[in-house]
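Protein chain data
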Amino acid sequence: MAGYDVAQLVKRKQNEAYIEYFFTRKGHDLFCFVPSYVPEVRIQGLKIAAGTRASILGSNKTFVCTQTGSDCTIDLSRAMPGEIPEELFVVKLSGAVK
């Protein structure tokens, strides 16, 4: 064990590196683990396939997922309180990966 505390590595710090998201994939789906609620998830350098859908695991609600230059942007701002956990949650991008 390297002695890293993941809870500390995901905290935003000025002038220090931190981890924004964790990723895994299964087939054509990409899963983005988000440490805490943010109104917009921006995944740098991800070009998504046409027709990609974003949803939160444990919810049946879908969210707008767009290509913004070379980044993928997921707008979570329209979620009502309680629809997205305040802490760790997973965004599923269905059909994002070829």
The chain has a mean pLDDT of 87. Residues 6-94 form a domain with the Immunoglobulin-like fold (CATH 2.60.40.1180).
